[in-house]
Amino acid sequence: MERVTVKLFAPETSVMLLIDHQVGTLGFCRNIPEKMIVQNTRALARFAKALGMPVVLTTSQEQNAQGPLIPAMEEILPDAYAARVKRSGVANAWNDPDYRAAVEAAAGDRKDLIVAGLTNDVCIAYPALSMVEAGYRVLVVQDAGGSPNQIAEDTARRFWENAGARTTTTNALAAELGQDWSSPNGAAMIGIVFEEIISQLDEMSA
User: Fold this and answer.
1) Which among 55, 73, 116, 123 is annotated as catalytic?
2) Could you list the residue range(s) of the whole structural domain that residue 168 is in?
3) For 126-149, what is each residue's pLDDT tens digit?
4) Is 126 within a domain?
5) In the chain, how many domains are there?
């Protein structure tokens, strides 16, 4: 079996893309608890803010069942929230000209896109493919999103990995971006991990 060399993502080369984390869309996910999605999404937003990474937010049909973004987005990332791209209903966000332009502007010379959203089987799988085809390296944070069932989730992961995107989790991403817990970046990451991720474990075991 051929060994694949993986180049880790770094804050200075990456952009955070949070897609359709809307209060109504949360209800479309059944393979992972809603609270876990929200906490992990909060962590991603805080990672980006702490490390000075560009962030692009987008929504689809806020006026319909999908609803507005979860409140944490406006709380943590007020500027990105105000500048969010409101799509008319294009399922593959990359096919929306305004969204693609926003991502390209935020990225500049950066070629690494960290992506999470709802739902993984639709709103992440297809943009991940398109972004890889556009020449970006794509890292999907799987546990900051979900799908209607586990079959859909597993199928989506195979789809984006076969397309060339990589999969990670919120906790693993903190280590990848921070690298050294004693460094300034690492210290910022570990604090957020304990507040947003480890707290979930404490609640589940209570």
Assistant:
1) 123
2) 15-205
3) 999 999 999 999 999 999 999 999
4) yes
5) 1
